[in-house]
Write a structure and sequence with these properties.
By secondary structure, the protein is α+β, with helices and mostly antiparallel strands. The chain is built from three helices and seven strands, in the order H-H-E-E-H-E-E-E-E-E.
Length: 297
């Protein structure tokens, strides 16, 4: 007897069923993978937080990254191949107020031994190769900074500020102070940064970190918690009250509140878009200005 094969109609029906099943399963699979990456991202931020805590508690013979108050703003990724970039005039490629060099101190002191911890799993970034400019393998202590922007997926609270009482001492910071988060996008609606706090959900996509498809960002706070937020207006702020200033959420963590320093007793609501740029610094004792941005080199 001849075996009966599938008819064209039956094949098309089967193909249609497969397409429908894929349309259902693929988005769920992608969402599951992204969820797992966000969890890994949270773990990495906590590892960096642990490194920062140990750095504060131990007497390490590395001076702080050079701070030049007369040179406003911050720099990033300078002095990469300089073994001692933390003193003034250490090398031609070393610049003051380098935020990423401040983070690299955790690698130099082995408090965060794996450079992959600084790379968000939801990005195309890669772990620092730990090589010199000639491609030869070197130890972290022989370098002064990350190899380049593609080896760092997170932004750090700019520690260089002339604002009254400003200082990144975790024991003195309010719990809602943002220490780190997924990379600052450096852009906003129609190319203007930052978006206002009353922007639409679609507009906020331009203000969110590119790390997680601009859906939001993981934020590491001074109290050690890591939280997922769909907007960048999640930093610590002050709102006026009858008796005393009350803590509220609302500071844009990817911008500085003002182009000039504000007094520590400043009590206006901090739900303002703020300003962004390498020539700027945190303007208030509780102003989280997370840098570098995706545009900094």
């Amino acid at each position: 007897m001849r075996k009966r094969g599938f008819t064209l109609l039956e094949l098309l029906l089967i193909l249609g069923i497969v397409v429908v099943l894929l349309a259902i399963v693929v988005p769920y699979a992608a969402a599951f993978r992204e969820g797992a990456r966000r969890v890994e991202c949270v773990d990495q931020l906590r590892q960096i937080r642990d490194g920062l805590d140990r750095y504060i508690l131990t007497n390490i013979d590395y001076p702080r990254v050079t701070y030049a108050p007369d040179s406003a703003g911050y720099t990033a990724f300078t002095g990469t191949d300089d073994a001692e970039p933390f003193v003034q005039g250490a090398g031609e490629d070393v610049q003051s107020n380098d935020v990423t060099a401040s983070l690299w101190l955790l690698m130099r002191s082995a408090l965060v031994p794996d450079p992959g911890v600084f790379v968000c799993p939801s990005t195309w970034d890669t772990a620092d190769p730990l090589t010199n400019k000639d491609g030869v393998r070197v130890g972290p202590a022989e370098r002064g900074n990350f190899r380049g922007p593609g080896n760092l997926s997170y932004s750090y609270a700019n520690p260089f500020s002339m604002a009254e009482q400003f200082g990144l001492k975790q024991d003195n910071l309010p719990g809602g102070f943002a220490l780190m988060a997924d990379m600052n996008p450096g852009t906003g609606v129609d190319g203007i940064f930052p978006v206002p706090s009353d922007a639409t959900a679609g507009q906020f996509a331009a203000a969110n970190s590119p790390n997680h498809n601009r859906a939001g960002q993981n934020v590491l706070y001074a109290d050690g918690s890591v939280r997922w937020h769909a907007t960048p207006y999640v930093g610590f702020a002050y709102a006026p009250a009858k008796e005393e200033a009350a803590a509220v959420w609302g500071d844009n963590i990817y911008s500085t509140l003002s182009i000039e320093s504000l007094p520590a007793e400043h009590g206006e609501p901090f739900d303002l878009p703020g300003f962004i740029g390498q020539s700027l610094a945190p303007s208030h004792v509780n102003d989280s200005y997370l840098v570098p941005t995706i545009r900094d080199e």
